[in-house]
Amino acid sequence: MRTVPFSQFFIGVFALVIFVTSIHLYGGVDEFGAGFMPTVLSGLLFFFTALDGFIQCRKETKVMDQFTGKEWKAIFLIIVAVALFVWLLDILGFLISAIALLFCLMMIRRKEKVLFALVLSVMTASIIYYVFAHVLMVDLPSGFWQ
Questions:
Q1: What is the pLDDT of residues 107-146, one digit of tens each?
Q2: Crossing angle, helix 114-130 and helix 94-109, to 10 degrees?
Q3: Distance CA 124, CA 96 (A)
Q4: Is the backbone of residue 28 left (phi > 0), alpha (psi -120 to 50) or beta?
Q5: Are 38 and 25 in contact (CB under 8 A)?
Q6: For residue 6, what pLDDT is reported?
Q7: 102, 121 contact by CB (below 8 A)
Q8: Which of 72, 97, 112, 146 could form an S-S bond across to 117 if both were Cys, CB 3.0 to 4.6 Å?
Q9: Which whole number is the average pLDDT over 27-56?
Q10: What angle do CA 19, 22, 27 make, to 5 degrees?
């Protein structure tokens, strides 16, 4: 039996939604502006996801096993972590929220030690903050630090 992976379907739907939203809200790629990069990147993401799905359907694949309880728990925890990130973003600001999100995601995997995960979370969130806030001049939420 041929199957399309679960995650591949959702990535394709996500890319298509971002593509259509970028065209309708920001004007798409007609002019260089707020909608240019989201439209181009989501279009490419959808194209390559569809291409990968087509290639996978042409191959002979085995039936995928059912998710285990541990995998469902990890998916639920990831959804909760991302929802908390979005909710706390305006309250705590980008930097603290991103550090907390990255740390939680690494702890869900349980492959890194706590200190290493914390240091890596702080470094990664700081680099992302610096690039977006200072290099690209994107106004990120600062939370109660204002």
A1: 887 777 889 999 999 999 999 999 888 887 878 888 776 5
A2: 140
A3: 12
A4: left
A5: no
A6: 67
A7: yes
A8: 112
A9: 79
A10: 125
* Stated pTM of the model: 0.61
* pLDDT, the chain, mean: 81
pLDDT of residue 65: 60
**DSSP code per residue over 54-79:** HHHHHS--PPPPPPPHHHHHHHHHHH
C-alpha 46/C-alpha 11 separation (Å) is 8
Residue 109 identity: R
Over 50: is that where the pLDDT of 2 sits?
A: no
- β strands within the chain, DSSP E: none
Could you tell me the two tokens for 87? 């909710």
More confident residue, 24 or 3: 24
Q: Provide the terminal-to-terminal Cα distance of the chain, rounded to the nearest Å.
A: 57
**Amino acid present at 26:** Y
How many angstroms separate the CA atoms of 115 and 45, rounded? Answer: 35
Phi-psi category of 67—alpha, beta or left, where left has phi over 0 and alpha has psi -120 to 50?
Answer: beta
